[in-house]
Amino acid sequence: MRCDDILKKLEEEYPLNCAEEWDNPGLLAGRRNREVHRVFIALDATEETIREAIDAEADLMITHHPLLFHSIREVSDDTFTGRRILALIEHEISYYAMHTNFDVLGMSYINEKQLDLQDTRVLDATRESDGIVEGIGRVGFLAEPMTLEDLAEYVRTCFGLDAVRCYGPAHTERSEETLVSRVAVCGGSGKSMIGPALEEKAQVLVTGDIDYHTAIDALAQGLCIIDAGHYGTEYVFISYMKKKLEKLFPDLVVTGAKIRQPYQVIS
Asked: Rounded CA gap, 45 and 4, in Å?
């Protein structure tokens, strides 16, 4: 089928107008009328994932994070961005990104289900359509209250990670005062979600990319932080979109990037 047929179907469910103004989702390289038989899914368009797409003989590559956010002055092998674009074009791979439009209409739902949050609501509303509020992140209740330490371990397990960072007081007694029940979650970089999490009276925010000063300032306001990493909270995009495309287009061959953290924890 044509590339455009696939993209139109995706945009019915994840419209580009749901993306933030600063974002740059959509078809960023390639031809809309190109015939597509094989699709490759990744979180980012890096040298490694583009090589995987080439090896998979993909006609279309779909990522969560856009390769291009801002205007560029050249496309050459003198820059890492240029080399990536050239590799895609030279191997006739169309390239499509679905970022904050997917965050609003997909990632928030996925993260909510990963943690099995109950009685949820949108953490940071970005739009309202037909009376339905949509936006970034979710806030809700754990199925069972637990200590912060137990919650950190629960997040690590639910997200399939080797480790998470937990900012908060250490508790060993399982008294009512030490148990966590109301949790906010935002995949990716969630620094801007601290304010909404406090407004929603969350006890803990699960997210990624939290720096030291931001974390201790959040603690000073009564909000604990579990930092599961940008990649750690969003790599589920790969398996989710693979299943989605296989269901929508049974004739397509869909493969996903290898799961690899972009860093190592040395202890």
From this structure: 20
Q: What is the CATH number of the domain that holds 245?
A: 3.40.1390.30
* Structural domain boundaries, residue 61: 3-98+235-256
Give yes or no for residue 135 having a pLDDT over 80: yes
Residue 60 near residue 40 (C-beta atoms within 8 A): yes
Residue 262 covered by a domain: no
Query: In this structure, are residues 219 and 194 in contact, taking their beta carbons and an 8 Å threshold?
Result: no
Residues 241 and 134 in one domain: no
Using the Cα atoms of residue 137, residue 141, residue 142 and residue 148 in order, give the sign of their dihedral: positive
What CA–CA distance (Å, rounded) separates 184 from 204?
Answer: 6
Q: How far is CA 226 from CA 100, 156, 190, in A?
A: 22, 9, 11
- pLDDT score, position 54: 98
Tell me, yes or no, whether 209 lies in a domain.
yes
Decide if 261 is inside a domain. Answer: no
Question: pLDDT averaged over the chain?
Answer: 95
